[in-house]
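Comment thread on ticket #2218

A.B. wrote:
> Attaching the input chain for the structure job we discussed in standup.
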Amino acid sequence: MAFSIPERKPARRYTFAAPPVHLLHVPPKRVWLLFAMPHQWRVFELVYFTEKTLQLSIISADRNTMTFILIISFFVILLVTVFMLFSDRIFNRKRSKPLSGADTMKLREANKRLAHNPKDPDALLVIANHFYTQGNWEEAYRTYTTITEIGGSTDEFTVYCRYGICALKLGHVDNAYKGLTVARSLKQNDFDVNFNLGIIEFQRRNYEKAMQLFQNARVINPEDAPNLRYFGHTLFKLNKYKEAMIFIRQAMDIAPDDKESLYVLGECYFEANQPEQALKIFSHLRSDPDLGASACLFSGTINISIHENEQAIENFELGLKHEQIKDDVLLDLRYKLATTYIQQNDLGKALPLLKQIQAGTPGYKDVPILINRYQELHSNRNLQIFLMGSQADFIALCRKSVMSYYTRAKVKIINISITKNDWADINAEVDTPKWSEVVAFRFIRSQGTIGELVVRDFHSHLKEVKAGKGICLTVGTFSDEAKRFTEARLIDLIEKERFIAILNAASHTTVGNQKSK
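C.D. wrote:
> Ran it. Output below, let me know if you need it in another format.
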């Protein structure tokens, strides 16, 4: 059976406000409402544009046309109706916990009582407890606040306890402390009160008070993982590392995914002089997006303490690759990486890091001093070897300096000795056309000021080796007392500028062309 659809007449359209409907969350929808009128059908077409507006169009058509539309529209309307009836359950089924029959009856009874008396504290308590058990902290907090203002509740402990907990959840720490303190005055041996008061004292860094509160909570519930966790962290803050380890491990047995506690456990091992255990933990946490940078810092620090500089550099560099780094951790990573590069004599990588620190945080630790000291070293290879080179390279450079110190002379080195890593003493027989003498050289590895005591020690050394003359060299300076001491003695003091010239001249001298022993 065919239907002919005549040309539609311009429809009269009306746009007005409408209450929100779940169907309106999608692009404009049309719903047709059909009414049988004399001689024709009236079709009310509702077009939803937004959640708050809709458009009504009145369309006229003959019966044949509308019979076709009626068949289709019937099923559409049926589906829309069913959807609107059950949409609230579909979208909200995870928002709240299902209520038992007893809870439903309590809520109904509370609402009836509130209808007669809006300030009924016990009825409000039923409502507040409902919000609390559903995790709706804002509504629960607001309702408990109303009850505390009205007063007269038959269960004041629950009111103030849960009022404090809700306030803490919402970040109202002062109100949380007040509410929980009142609750504790009513009942001291309650787990929730002691635990949450302990959290507040921990956040306020009152660790002694926090420790006592967490201990009280532990007596009530010995296996509560969050309480064991906070208790262990508090003991760590109080420098009770071995005790802290016990409770943090207990907490992690219950909640093994707590990486922050694992990190604190690593700190406990570190502070308790168990670097190997600490290094295992921090190495495990290096890739963590939140704790990774700090873990790398600790790993590198431990590597330095056990003379594993290459591994330390690797850890510090890995730490700097993290995106989320605290400012103090970032500074420490750069500083320790730079100083480790210095220990490895890699000034080319150390100086850019030091300058970066100085640009961002001027005067951080001894960064300005390090920049001034190592900037010159980086540009002078001989100076770098003298101060930072290996013992073999240092001695080789000193030998060259002795061999080239006197021109037109035969020099024979007869003895070399090193005192720790502070200086090297070289005794040499020097034969010139005018004189022959045993000359003692002392090369001091320091950029600082050399005092009188070192020079007096060198003078005693001259007597022991029966040297006729002494040469004391440093890339630093000599104090006025040291200079006065040598005025009447055969000791020459060579300071930085003159000594650098000697080093540069020595670098072009081939020791193999000289006689040496």
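A.B. wrote:
> Thanks. Noting for the ticket: Residues 1-61, 88-95, 510-517 have pLDDT under 50 and may be disordered.
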